[in-house]
C-alpha cells in the first residue's frame, strides 16, 4: 500500500513539475510503515485537491475561450426523436479519437434536426479534455475575415481559426453571407486549407454538400474546399423532423388545452 501511495504522490509531483520535491520525498518519509502510509495519504489528498482544482479551472477557461453560445450535452439529445440517426456512431464520435487523428466532421440536415446540438456537445466534451476549441457561425467568421482584408490583419485572423484543436463552423448556408460569393469561397478555403491534416473541424449546414458550390459562388474553389474537408471526414446526414418545431407545436397545444 505504501509503495502504491508513494507512486501516486510521485506522479502528482511530476505532473506539477516539482523536481526538488521528487528528489527529497523519500528523505521526509518515516521508516515505519504506518507513519509512512499516513504521511503519503495526506500528501496525496492535498496534491490531488490542487490537481483537481487546476483541472477544473483549465476546463472552465477552455469553455470560456470556446465562445460556445450554449453548452448542450449528448445526454440531453433526444435520439428517439431522430430514429434514422446512428446513435452508436455519434457516441463513438464522442470519444474524440477522430480529433486525435486530425479528422473532420460534417453534419447536414434541415433546420431543427439537432446538428448544432450534437456539434456543440462534442465541443463541450473536447473542452472537458482541456483541448482548445473555438465556435463560430459561418457568417460571423466570413464577416470577421472580410473585415481583416480591409485592415491588413487577415493572416492574424486566419491564425485564430486555424490554431484550435477543434473548430466548429456552424450554420453554413443558414444566414445569407454579405460579401462577394467568390471571396467567401476563398476565405473559407483559406481556413480549411490551414487546418487540413493538422486539426479537426466540424461544419454544420442545412444545405446538402452538392449545393455548397452554388451558395459559395465559386465552383472550382468549392470543389477544392470539399476535397480538403471530406478527404478524411465523417459525414452525417440527419434526415428527420425539426425538434424545435415539434416542441413548439406541443407547447401551443398545451396552452390551448389550458385555456379551453
Secondary-structure topology with pairs:
Elements: H1 2-15, H2 19-24, H3 33-66, H4 87-93, H5 97-100, E1 104-109, H6 115-128, E2 133-137, H7 138-151, H8 154-162, E3 166-172, H9 181-195, E4 200-205, H10 212-216, H11 219-230, E5 233-238, H12 243-259
Parallel strand pairs: 1-4, 1-5, 2-3, 3-4
Helix pairs in contact: 1-3, 3-6, 7-8, 8-9, 9-11
How would you describe this protein?
By secondary structure, the protein is an alpha/beta fold. The protein has two domains: 64 residues, no CATH class; 179 residues, P-loop containing nucleotide triphosphate hydrolases (Rossmann fold). 58% of the residues lie in helices and 12% in strands. The chain has a five-stranded parallel β-sheet. α8 packs across α9. The relative contact order is 0.13.
Rg from Cα: 24 Å
Alpha-beta classification:
alpha/beta
Give the biggest beta sheet. 5 strands, parallel
- CATH architecture title of the largest domain: 3-Layer(aba) Sandwich
| CATH level 4 superfamily of the largest domain | P-loop containing nucleotide triphosphate hydrolases
**Total count of domains:** 2
Q: Give the distance, in angstroms, between the N- and C-terminal Cα atoms.
A: 69 Å
Approximately what portion of the residues adopt beta-strand conformation? 5-15%
Please tell me what the overall shape is: globular
How many helical elements? 12
Amino acid at each position: 500500500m505504501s509503495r502504491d501511495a508513494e507512486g501516486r504522490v510521485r506522479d502528482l509531483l511530476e505532473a506539477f513539475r516539482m523536481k526538488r520535491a521528487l528528489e527529497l520525498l523519500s528523505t521526509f518519509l518515516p521508516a515505519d510503515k504506518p507513519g509512512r502510509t499516513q504521511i503519503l495519504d495526506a500528501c496525496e489528498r492535498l496534491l490531488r485537491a490542487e490537481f483537481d482544482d487546476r483541472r477544473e479551472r483549465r476546463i472552465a477557461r477552455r469553455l470560456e475561450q470556446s465562445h460556445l453560445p450554449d453548452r448542450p450535452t449528448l445526454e440531453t439529445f433526444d435520439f428517439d426523436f431522430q430514429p434514422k440517426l446512428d446513435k452508436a456512431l455519434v457516441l463513438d464520435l464522442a470519444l474524440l479519437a477522430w480529433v486525435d487523428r486530425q479528422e473532420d466532421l460534417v453534419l447536414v440536415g434541415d433546420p431543427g434536426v439537432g446538428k448544432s446540438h450534437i456539434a456543440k456537445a462534442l465541443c463541450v466534451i473536447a473542452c472537458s479534455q482541456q483541448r482548445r476549441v473555438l465556435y463560430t457561425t459561418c457568417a460571423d467568421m466570413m464577416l470577421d475575415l472580410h473585415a481583416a482584408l480591409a485592415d491588413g490583419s487577415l493572416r492574424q485572423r486566419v491564425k485564430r481559426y486555424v490554431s484550435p484543436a477543434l473548430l466548429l463552423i456552424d450554420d453554413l448556408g443558414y444566414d445569407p453571407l454579405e460579401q462577394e460569393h467568390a471571396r467567401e469561397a476563398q476565405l473559407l478555403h483559406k481556413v480549411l486549407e490551414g487546418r487540413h491534416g493538422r486539426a479537426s473541424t466540424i461544419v454544420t449546414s442545412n444545405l446538402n454538400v452538392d449545393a455548397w458550390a452554388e451558395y459559395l459562388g465559386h465552383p472550382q474553389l468549392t470543389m477544392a474546399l470539399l476535397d480538403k474537408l471530406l478527404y478524411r471526414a465523417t459525414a452525417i446526414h440527419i434526415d428527420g423532423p425539426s425538434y424545435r418545431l415539434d416542441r413548439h407545436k406541443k407547447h401551443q397545444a398545451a396552452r390551448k388545452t389550458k385555456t379551453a
